[in-house]
Write a structure and sequence with these properties.
Elements: E1 7-10, E2 14-15, H1 22-35, E3 39-42, E4 51-52, H2 55-65, E5 70-73, E6 76-77, H3 83-96, E7 101-106, H4 126-142, E8 146-149, E9 154-158, E10 172-174, H5 179-188, E11 191-194, H6 200-216, E12 225-234, H7 238-252, H8 258-262, E13 264-266, H9 268-280, E14 285-290, H10 294-305
Parallel strand pairs: 1-3, 1-14, 3-5, 5-7, 6-7, 7-10, 10-11, 11-12, 12-13, 12-14
Antiparallel strand pairs: 2-4, 8-9
Helix pairs in contact: 1-10, 2-3, 3-4, 5-6, 6-9
Length: about 300
């Protein structure tokens, strides 16, 4: 099923009720490829009481059962990661998937805090650690021998093989909302994804700001990619949909009130109309993020919403 706008969808990753269901994950991934989705996406939360699978490991599994879908993260919490190990993991994923990996990274913090202390880091200098990590990863993916001297990391003639299949390297996208985060995206990233936990209005504002910053910089805006994750509940019973959204956000983000502020819900027609507004604002890709009834949403989005975008 071809459509003009590439659309991805969130792979089941969070399991509130009962054990982790890998058969469900497998069926979802295989069916998404059959239905013509462009990509599968995951988020990251390493610690916490919610059953949520680690993204790079899960994408490596999905690489083996699909052949075409791009495999993305939105986002890896980069200040909590060692960039050398992360570069290796993603290069491996890109080789295993024959060039389908997309690495999204963010600073973290947000609604749930980022717990640097648990990982042996401090919050001090986290932005510097983030930008240094991005530069190191790029060097390790592209240079025969990488050298880097910064505040947190020092490398001298370090080799890492194999390189990613994608050349010159696999794409790096950023998240974030703050003015400084948008500036970092323009300076260091290949694209930017508006978070699911931000509203359509925020995407319109923030993507517009990034376009201004691209114009002010020496970057060609045609080489910068805009996308938006959309928390979605297709249901003609809007009151029921809102209740279920609040319940899901209460469990996932410990913030039930956030759900109705950032999600899109209602009939197919209403949801399509709201998503079309995001596309008109310049989104070049939509990532659907159903919170429940995942297989049903997989079919509805592909058959009824994607052809309208």
């Amino acid at each position: 099923m071809a459509n003009d706008l590439p659309c991805g969808i969130e792979l089941p990753q969070v399991f509130f009720d009962g054990p982790v269901d890998m058969e469900h994950v497998r069926n979802f991934a295989v069916r998404a490829e059959d239905l013509g989705y462009d990509s599968l996406w995951l988020q990251e939360r390493i610690i916490g009481d919610v059953k949520m699978l680690e993204p790079v490991t899960l994408l490596s599994y999905v690489a083996a059962i699909t052949s075409r879908l791009k495999l993305g993260t939105s986002v890896i919490l980069l200040p909590l990661r060692n960039p050398v190990q992360l570069a290796k993991a993603y290069a491996t994923l890109d080789v295993m998937s024959n060039g389908r990996a997309v690495m999204g990274v963010g600073l973290g913090g947000g609604h749930l805090g980022s717990h640097e202390n648990v990982f042996g880091y401090t919050r001090e200098g986290r932005v510097t650690r983030f930008t240094e990590a991005v530069e190191i990863i790029k060097l390790l993916w592209t240079e025969p021998k990488a050298s880097f001297h910064g505040r947190f990391w020092n490398l001298d003639n370090v080799s890492m093989e194999p390189k990613p299949i994608q050349k010159p390297r696999l794409p790096i996208i950023f998240g974030g909302h703050h003015e400084n985060a948008l500036r970092r995206a323009v300076k260091h990233a290949d694209g930017w994804m508006g978070a699911g936990s931000s509203s359509s209005g925020s995407f319109i504002r923030e993507s517009g700001r990034i376009r201004q910053l691209l114009e002010e910089s020496s970057r060609d805006p045609r080489n910068f990619h805009f996308s938006k994750r959309v928390y979605l509940a297709v249901d003609n019973d809007e009151a029921r949909a809102e209740r279920r959204i609040r319940d899901w956000f209460g469990k996932r983000y410990k913030n039930a009130d956030l759900g109705p502020k950032v999600s899109i819900w209602g009939s197919v027609g209403k949801c399509t109309e709201k998503i079309q507004e995001i596309v008109k604002a310049g989104a070049q890709q939509i990532v659907f993020n159903p919170m429940f009834d995942e297989m049903e949403h997989l079919e509805i989005c592909a058959k009824e919403i994607m052809p309208q975008l």
